[in-house]
Amino acid sequence: MTLLLRFVAWGLAAAVTFATLGPARLRPHADLGQNGEHALAFVLVGLAFGLAYRGNRLLTALLAVAMTGAIEILQFWAPGRHARLSDFVVDALAACAGLAIAAAMDWFINRHRPQTS
What are the structural domain ranges in the chain? Predict the structure, then answer.
């Protein structure tokens, strides 16, 4: 199961990277506004990585924030794209929120799991 979750997490990260750096016309659009679209994408990425890499959540969060920063910086060289501090903040907070949701889900499941003798 962990291997499947990791595959999904990295696939989502690749899709978000392509949507962020690729041609704007190929990016999926939702009626959530720019910040809403960013938040949804990065919450899903954070959730996926939080479920796939349970061992060290702090390191995972730091890497997620670094990844969002790297993607934002790479937009300086992507034609038609604009790097913005506000996008970085939304993306990083959303990724961390996804990681927090994954941690809460793990806590809830472990707390309500029947004890075996």
Answer: 2-18+34-112
